[in-house]
Specification:
There is one protein chain. The two termini are about 35 Å apart. It is built from eight helices and ten strands. Helices cover about 40% and strands about 20% of the residues. It is globular and about 65 Å long. The relative contact order is 0.16. Strands 1, 2, 3, 4, 5 and 6 form a six-stranded mixed sheet that branches. Strands 8-9-7-10 form a four-stranded antiparallel sheet. β8 and β9 form a beta hairpin. It has about 300 residues and is α+β, with helices and mostly antiparallel strands. The longest helix has 20 residues. (3R)-3-hydroxy-3-methyl-5-(phosphonooxy)pentanoic acid (PMV) binds next to α4.
Length: about 300
Amino acid sequence: MKSSAPSNIALIKYMGKVDGIGNKPINASLSWTLENLRSEVHIEPVKGPDYWSPLFDLKLKPHSVEKFLKHFKFLKEKWNVHENFHIKSGNTFPSDCGLASSASSFAALTLAAAEIFQKSHPQKWGADLKELSKLSRQGSGSSCRSFFSPWALWKEEGAEALDLPLRLLHAVVILENEPKKVSSSEAHKRVITSPRFSGRVKRAESRLEDLISIIRKNEWKIGRELVWEEFEDMHDLFHTSQNPFRYITAKAREVLNWSETNWKQEGHGPWVTLDAGPNIHFLFEKSDLQWAEKYMQKFKNETVIKSWKMD
Ligand code: PMV
């Protein structure tokens, strides 16, 4: 059984969990699905215990393998499956550096497991994406948004598709592909110690409402400011937590400054956001293809993954 799932980039971020309950977010989040950044999972029955091996040379830390197998065990329990399996997984993009490879890989694992288990142990909800999204959330929170495309809204238990009249082109500039020193699980814990955490739910929820309305009204410029504010807000929580940490490197700040100046000069530009990493995501309006291509020339010497191809 083979399944594949996309990663996603949140414009309104999930950061901070409700105490003690499997990856329940303190605020709702909104993401754009990254069809060009995908994970693949292969599952086949075996005689011995469940085990994992890499696809496409993926290097996973032992702790991450354990987390992946733990989620698989949880899914087996849900379907009442007792057989054992060999699971292979890999990503079409660098892992563990803030490109949300855990979102795509846990979504792909949940999809592959559901498909194989559903054959021998049918469940009423087995192929229901909303239910699968809820199950996947328990393995990796942000993975629950990867079940819906192009827009996903995650409020509590799981995500759902949101019908918005905006289509985007995505490019990410990979400034660093080293594994991050502070995992996002750790980040979720540390942010609650920041003095700026009080009020975070209100800020995120109010931005979410505004962003949806901005998209519906096609107010690109205001949208850019809001999306920028939101990633800076999340990173400020990192910088001001009791045990502070930082993903934004000097190089990343340089690129952000360039983008800001360019916006002021041109009066036009992409939406910009960062995940839990230094890599910079640019989102252009779909109709802006030529302009996006020109903009990205600035990064011709960097590693860039784009959702579009030009001859
Ligand atoms: O799903 P997790 O626990 O890896 O959390 C990821 C959170 C961010 O990527 C930083 C933001 C988001 O909403 O995707």
